[in-house]
Design goal:
Blueprint lengths: L2 H27 L1 H17 L3 H13 L5 H13 L3 H14 L4 H13 L3 H14 L4 H13 L3 H14 L4 H13 L3 H14 L4 H13 L3 H14 L5 H12 L3 H14 L4 H13 L3 H14 L4 H13 L3 H14 L4 H13 L3 H14 L3 H13 L3 H14 L4 H13 L3 H14 L4 H13 L3 H14 L4 H13 L3 H14 L4 H13 L3 H14 L6 H11 L3 H14 L4 H13 L3 H14 L4 H14 L3 H14 L4 H13 L3 H14 L4 H14 L2 H14 L6 H12 L4
Helix pairs in contact: 2-3, 3-4, 4-5, 5-6, 6-7, 6-8, 7-8, 8-9, 9-10, 10-11, 11-12, 12-13, 13-14, 14-15, 14-16, 15-16, 16-17, 16-18, 17-18, 18-19, 18-20, 19-20, 20-21, 20-22, 21-22, 22-23, 23-24, 24-25, 24-26, 25-26, 26-27, 27-28, 28-29, 28-30, 29-30, 30-31, 31-32, 32-33, 33-34, 34-35, ...
Length: about 725
């Protein structure tokens, strides 16, 4: 080739290369092309479950201007997969704002809005889709869900029926329609609907599972097992049907079969957290929490990055009361994510085990701020009960039940509180629901016994206690209630003999020896009572209330100093029991040892700083026996906030205001205490003193007269006479 031709060829190649480069640069600079590249890459990562990398790609796509709805929609899907509901809501809102015709974004946003309780907004979005696409089955399903949220099952049935007609293969629509029929009290129609789903989708495991769930909820475990077995046969690698089959086996007592299912699942889905969650729950429910913990530890060694497994191990260790080990693991989770609601709840449970009730309450409240759950409301109720916040605890247990109607322990705890707060009828209703699911629940039968006795039906209450003891012959709570009932009826010996027979079968049961001591003390056999309680302490030095009972025995003998030592020991062994502080306080109060009384009140307040009774009593002690008056005012104000209708608290606060020189404020509070308890001479005396200090002399005379007329011998009768004499100018 000639040199000139070679030069022309090189120039041509350079021009072609330059053109190609320009074309390439032009394409990469085009925003639509770059957005599409990020979207395609993100979808590829999403498809294989690599959500963090998918999130980055979709974020890059969404950042390119002008904005496009699809980028925000895919970003929302990824946030949902990662469990970030708020971020998903934000991106779906952006997608709808960018493109009013993006049907999937509208429908997904409407679904989230229903979950958030924003029903009207959800309905508007679904109706907007139906205007454009009248045959959209999902829009009708969303309207059905909106009706369900509004407690309108009949309206929901209409919408779900339309969804089924428009999409006969949509199993989720049949499931929703069946659930709506059940909510409307139409189980036959529900069964028909679930069967239609199976007929329309004969090879669908999901349809069989829905029908199986229906049968199980109706108590037909045999039919449920048949359907779930069929679902497992349709999908040899399906996890959910097998987990449910294991639950059915557990409910019907087929423990070996359940364990075989879990072994199969470990082969099918190794490392699946749901499988190990189910296995751990299985071991817990069959009394093998140690085995559950061992399995989880083993798996974590192989898969240390599985945070959900670590959380499950924490829960299992909490069940085993392994506070230190659970605390270390849980702190690792919280260090990585301080707002993890499950870890915060676990931290609250650990604090409950340590009897740090106020800290537990605060921690569980933090968990609820992050995510609402039935378990969180339940443990909030436990903390509130321990702090004496009974009405708040009832609300928390009720909320736990609303979120999970199968939360049996919440129902039991709520029913117990209903009995103690004078609502035995409500307690009976709650226990009926528990007994439907577990006819032999000794806890439910025990609450029913208490409720019947609270109604005055002692015979039926006793029969129910016998039902408990038929299921659990050595139930200490049932035996204690039976002993109380028999003692009131002069039948102590019956229960005493029964406990003695049980001890012959269970000679090392410290609780039975303790209860025998209670019975013997009731029968005034102090020597035997002391021997029995000492035996309980020998068997278990930490037997609850054993040293408190020993103090009662020594007091019955007149040995106050021995009783003091017993109560000191009780406080040492159980420093969180306010009862022991108060019992010891009473002994020193009789001796007029006000310094010890003050110390014990203050120690009790450290244990239960939220108690309004303790705050009130300590405030009054400060006022009467020397103490910080300003502190007394603060304590009395705290008590007033929690017990606004108490005449005792109104009197304490009024007296604190009087002592601090706030006489008009004192008059207001003391007038309230007199109004609430007009026959209490002390309240009239305090009011008279406040009136006199405020310059209302005639009102003061009237109050002093009422104090003396009500009770000539009350504590401050002499002072009232002197004050009245000074105001009247003459003796009475």
């Amino acid at each position: 080739m000639k040199p000139a031709d070679r030069k022309r060829l090189i120039r041509k190649k350079l021009v072609l290369l330059g053109s190609a480069a320009a074309l390439f640069l032009g394409c990469s600079a085009d925003p639509n092309t770059r957005r599409l590249e990020h979207l395609n890459s993100g979808k590829a990562h999403f498809q294989v479950g690599d959500y963090p990398r998918a999130l980055i790609e979709f974020q890059n796509a969404a950042a390119i201007k002008p904005p496009r709805a699809e980028a925000h929609f895919q970003l929302a899907r990824t946030h949902l997969a990662l469990g970030d509901i708020e971020a998903a809501h934000r991106e779906l809102t952006a997608a709808v704002a960018v493109d009013r015709t993006h049907a999937e974004a509208h429908l997904q946003l409407a679904t989230l809005l229903i979950a958030r309780g924003e029903l009207e907004k959800a309905q508007s979005l679904a109706e907007a889709i139906l205007k454009k696409y009248p045959a959209n089955a999902r829009a009708h399903a969303i309207l059905g869900a909106r009706r369900v949220a509004a407690d309108d099952p009949k309206g929901a049935i209409v919408e779900f029926q339309k969804a089924v007609e428009l999409d006969p293969k949509g199993i989720e629509n049949y499931s929703a329609l069946g659930a709506a029929h059940r909510a409307a009290g139409q189980p036959d129609k529900a069964e028909t609907t679930y069967k239609k789903a199976v007929a329309a989708n004969p090879k669908s495991a999901q349809a069989r599972v829905a029908l199986g769930h229906f049968y199980f909820s109706e108590g037909d475990t045999a039919a449920a097992e048949t359907q779930i077995r069929a679902a497992c046969d349709l999908d040899l690698f399906a996890v959910q049907p097998r987990l449910f089959l294991a639950q059915i086996y557990l409910a019907t007592g087929k423990l070996a079969d359940a364990e075989k299912i879990y072994a199969e699942l470990r082969t099918i889905a190794p490392g699946n957290p749901e499988v190990y969650d189910g296995l751990a729950q299985f071991y817990r429910s069959t009394g093998r929490a140690e085995k559950a913990a061992a399995e989880l530890r083993s798996l974590l060694r192989d898969k240390p990055g599985q945070g959900s497994l670590k959380a499950l191990l924490v829960e299992t260790l909490i069940d085993l009361k392994r506070v230190q080990e659970a605390g270390v693991l849980n702190q690792e989770i919280l260090s990585a994510n301080p707002g993890d609601p499950q870890a915060l709840l676990a931290a609250g449970r650990l604090l409950l085990l340590q009897k740090k009730y106020q800290e537990a309450l605060t921690t569980v409240e933090r968990s609820l701020k992050e995510a609402e759950s039935s378990d969180a409301h339940y443990y909030l109720g436990v903390a509130q009960t321990s702090l004496g916040m009974i009405e708040l605890a009832k609300d928390s247990f009720a909320r736990a039940l609303a979120l999970n109607p199968d939360a049996l322990q919440a129902a039991l705890d709520l029913s117990s509180l209903e009995v103690t707060t004078g609502a035995p009828e409500e307690a009976l209703r709650l226990t009926e629901d528990v007994l439907k699911q577990d006819p032999k629940s000794s806890s439910a039968l025990l609450v029913r016994a208490k409720a019947r006795m609270a109604q005055g039906n002692l015979r039926q209450g006793e029969d129910l206690l016998e039902d408990v003891l038929a299921v659990e012959p050595d139930s200490l709570p049932a035996l204690a209630d039976l002993l109380t009932l028999h003692s009131e009826q002069g039948r102590t010996q019956e229960t005493l003999s029964r406990i003695e027979r049980l001890i012959q079968k269970h000679p090392k049961n410290a609780g039975l020896h303790f209860l025998l001591s209670v019975a013997q003390l009731s029968a005034r056999n102090l020597k035997k009572a002391e021997a029995s309680v000492m035996r309980s302490i020998t068997l278990d030095p930490k037997t609850p209330a054993a040293h408190t009972l020993l103090a009662d025995i020594h007091l019955a003998r007149g040995s106050v100093e021995s009783a003091k030592k017993d109560l000191r020991k009780a406080i040492e062994l159980n420093p969180q029991s306010v009862t022991n502080y108060m019992a010891l306080k009473d002994l020193y109060e009789k001796e007029r040892n006000w310094d010890e009384v003050k110390t014990l009140y203050e120690e009790a307040r450290k244990v239960d700083p939220a108690s309004p009774q303790l705050a009130n009593d300590l405030a009054y002690h400060y006022l009467e026996h020397g103490g910080d008056v300003d502190a007394a005012v603060s304590l009395a104000q705290l008590a007033k906030q929690k017990m606004p209708g108490s005449p005792i608290v109104a009197d304490t606060l009024g007296w604190a205001y009087y002592k601090s020189g706030r006489h008009e404020a004192a008059v207001l509070q003391l007038k309230e205490s007199v109004r609430l308890a007009p026959d209490n001479p002390l309240y009239h005396y305090h009011l008279g003193m406040a009136y006199r200090a405020a310059g209302h002399f005639e009102s003061a005379r009237l109050s002093f007269r009422k104090a003396i007329e009500g009770n000539q011998e009350f504590q401050y009768a002499t002072r009232a006479r002197v004050a009245l004499n000074q105001l009247s100018g003459k003796p009475l």
